[in-house]
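Board notes (copied after class):
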Amino acid sequence: MDFALIIDDSGMAALDVDQQAGSIINNIYLSLTVERGSFFANPEFGSRLHLLKRAKNTVRTEMLAREYCLEALQWLLDNGRATSIEVFTERDRAVDLNRLKLLVEATQADGRVVSFEKFVEVV
């Protein structure tokens, strides 16, 4: 038994108990939402996505967001929790000029594919 984060459509998370604890979605969520350097037990944990809050919604910002995601999730590959991780970015300018959409698709060690979607607010 392990704890699980249940993420609703708005991106808010609630803590629940996961009887199987086989998914890495919690690891992905925490890796992308915790600011890198803010976790006392491991300063290398987390992402640098928070640095993009004041960045313009450009192709360069889109490339940086992808790089920051891959950097934050690299530990899942190193520890064998995931066999592959793909990050797709989209400048979602049709809905909101200041929104960058990130989609993470990870293949777990057991072969299951999990998806996680996150929006980053940029200028």
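Comment from the instructor: Strands lie at 2-7, 13-18, 82-91, 99-108, 113-121. The mean pLDDT is 85.
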